Structure formats: C-alpha cells, structure tokens
Amino acid sequence: MTIVDGAFYLATVDEDWGNGQLQRLGLDAAATSLETLQSFPFKPRSVAYDGARFWTADRNNHAIASFTLD
Length: 70
Prior knowledge:
With about 70 residues, this protein is mostly beta strands. It has one domain (about 1-65): Thrombin, subunit H (Beta Barrel), CATH 2.40.10. The chain has no helices and 7 strands. The protein has strands spanning about 1-5, 5-10, 20-25, 35-40, 45-50, 55-60, 65. It is globular, with a radius of gyration of 12 Å.
C-alpha cells in the first residue's frame, strides 16, 4: 500500500493469488468502497509511488514493473 494525494493505493489479488488489481480508497468522508483503477497481467506484490510513477513487483517472474495512471 502507498498513500498519494490523500488516498490509499493498494495492489490486491483474489484468494487464489490471481486477478491482480490496483485499487484506490480515498481518505475523505465519502470513501466507502474501493475503486479499481486497473488490472495487472501478473500477480502484483505491494505498490509504491515515487512522485511520478507507481511501482510493483511481478511476483512470479522476479521482476519490477512501473506504470502511470492515465
């Protein structure tokens, strides 16, 4: 999980470690559910933000991926 501009960003997977997604939860009073921002074609492990790009690990391929949100 990382926090950017007043929101939590989470890399999530389902119970079978599939269906990886980047999800956002706002910190304001209207934040009642997770918003799915994008899906991953791999199993993500954690998420970080460096001020310009998000980063996550591709668990099965031992790689790190960076991306931006449009």
